[in-house]
Amino acid sequence: MRIKADFDLCESNAICVGMAPDIFDLDDNDYLVILQEDIPADRVEELRQVVASCPKSALSLDE
């Protein structure tokens, strides 16, 4: 399973960073960076919640 971002939709609200800081970060220009695209099986449900919390629906899981 992989996490993906639509950078055209992303507004860098950083909600995902707050929920999963080991997966997401913002660079020096406040653009989203995905630190770990491959999601371990034991974190899938957690990342589903992160995806659902994105205010711009810019995140998705590629199963």
TrEMBL record:
Lineage, highest ranks first: Bacteria, Bacillati, Actinomycetota, Actinomycetes, Mycobacteriales
Protein name: Ferredoxin
Cofactor dependence: [3Fe-4S] cluster
GO MF assignments: 3 iron, 4 sulfur cluster binding; metal ion binding
Gene3D superfamilies: 3.30.70.20
Protein's UniProt keywords contain Cell division: no
Residue ranges annotated for the Divergent 4Fe-4S mono-cluster domain, each copy included: 1-61
Keywords: 3Fe-4S, Electron transport, Iron, Iron-sulfur, Metal-binding, Transport
Pfam families, sorted: Fer4_19
InterPro entries: Divergent_4Fe-4S_mono-cluster, Fe-S_cluster_ET
